[in-house]
Write a structure and sequence with these properties.
Length: about 450
């Protein structure tokens, strides 16, 4: 599908690509992932096949914000170069998945008079442009704009109002925005690697594209992406993204709790969590002993022995807090009902044993672990929940996003102004493509 362009000469994944090689970049607080894919023809149509993978421990990024530019650039460059080496192909532009800037949702509902005449393409362009003009949040930029439904004379659920007659036309638009400064800092790091950011997508949105089945997106599902320092959530219903939110707690907070509770270094706590951690109790936990190295400078020279029950008792409250915060924020936003009964967990922190069961208890829903199973060419080592965002970016590029705008966020021109570019290469021409391919 096509878009209103947001700035510059490039736009995000415009209509579905016929062929080409393109790259997805997911910069998290714990790891940076780059996937390079090439489109291939199948009986079901075009799909991406991964031909290069690179992932690197992230340095210089904390809580989705850049704290050391040089270290962040090194992590990005290493991940991209590893993927290029495997693919045998260099890339000059990337599509970026980001939790930077705390992506959040807003809804705008707009009505316009028709005077009992037929709805035309021009009317659809005008009403979408008016909706975008009305939305302006200080120091935030738009990432996504998704028309959820159209109305003619107040009748909701209209898929394509063109050709219908009525007194009024309305649209409900879902807008996803992010704080400008953290996102701009992240994009600047990518550009220092001699790469162009062709588009930015909210992490839980693209993770949902990779990890949710079509039926789940249609009937209602919640995607929870559990990162190192942030946990983000996306709600899907009727095949569309309905809500995006997040909480500033993630897997690194669990690790820090373990380090404090067991008096062990953070690196050791991360290893202990991965090898022995669980969010649920078992009858043998009191008898199973775990060796924990002492904190440097404590004077201890021998390994400590701690029961596994203590480790799990440290992990469980923090994960419960994460799921409770997600539940409360969705309830406050009125988005809980749209999420239906299904929850899918992605992200590196979601792999902790017992996390799905604990989420089910707290949220009162059916929970499973999500993986990017539908993306061709992924090896076992990079097909886990922690790679869903990069995989979803590739799928989105080929399928074509169902949005009214996309592309690199505009940081210096205020709200999107459609009329200023109505005669250019983007703007209205992109809208024509979007209408042609949406219906």
């Amino acid at each position: 599908m096509g878009f209103f362009k947001q700035g510059g000469a490039s736009s995000a994944a415009t209509p579905p690509r016929k062929s080409g090689v393109f790259a997805a970049l997911d910069i998290g607080a714990s790891k940076t992932v780059c996937f390079i894919a090439k489109t291939e023809e199948t009986l079901a149509g075009l799909r991406p096949r991964v031909i290069g993978v690179g992932h690197q421990s992230t340095r210089g990024v904390r809580a989705s914000q850049v704290v050391d530019v040089n270290l962040a650039v090194e992590s990005i460059r290493a991940a991209v170069e590893n993927a290029e080496r495997m693919a045998g192909h260099t890339v000059s532009e990337v599509y970026l998945a980001a939790s930077a800037g705390a992506p959040s949702s807003a809804r705008i509902s707009v009505e316009m008079d028709l005077a009992a005449r037929e709805v035309t393409d021009r009317d659809l362009r005008r009403i979408l442009a008016e909706a975008l003009r009305r939305h302006h949040e200080q120091k935030r930029v738009l990432l996504h704009a998704l028309p959820l439904s159209w109305r003619v004379d107040g009748h909701r659920g209209v898929k394509d109002p063109r050709g219908m007659f009525g007194e009024s036309l309305g649209v409900d638009l879902h807008l996803v925005s992010a704080a400008a400064d953290p996102l701009q800092n992240l994009i600047s790091c990518v550009e220092r690697c001699q790469l162009t950011v062709a588009g930015v997508a909210a992490t839980p949105y693209v993770s949902g594209i990779a990890a949710l089945a079509p039926d789940e997106r249609d009937l209602g599902a919640m995607l929870i992406d559990m990162g190192a320092h942030t946990t983000t959530v996306a709600v899907f219903n009727e095949g569309a993204l309905q809500h995006v939110d997040g909480v500033p707690v993630g897997g690194a907070h669990v690790t820090n709790d373990i380090a404090r509770g067991l008096s062990t270094p953070v690196n050791a706590a991360e290893r202990i969590k991965a090898l022995h951690g669980c969010a649920l109790d078992s009858p043998d936990d009191d008898q199973i002993m775990i060796e924990t190295p002492p904190v440097a400078g404590s004077g201890a020279v021998t390994m400590n022995q701690q029961p596994k029950a203590l480790l799990n008792a440290i992990i469980r409250p923090r994960l419960e807090e994460v799921f409770e915060m997600v539940r409360d924020r969705l309830d406050a936003a009125g988005a809980a009902s749209a999420a239906g009964r299904s929850v899918v967990l992605t992200g590196g922190a979601a792999q902790l044993p017992g996390a799905t069961q604990l989420a089910g208890r707290v949220l009162g829903k059916q929970v499973r672990l999500g993986r990017p199973d539908t993306l061709a060419g992924l090896g076992d080592a990079v097909s886990g929940p922690g790679f869903s965002a990069a995989a979803g970016l590739l799928l989105r590029c080929v399928q074509g996003p169902s949005e009214a705008i996309s592309g690199p966020p505009r940081f210096d021109q205020g709200p999107v102004r459609i009329r200023e570019r109505a005669d250019g290469d983007g703007g209205m021409k992109a809208v024509w493509r979007w209408f042609a391919e949406s219906f």
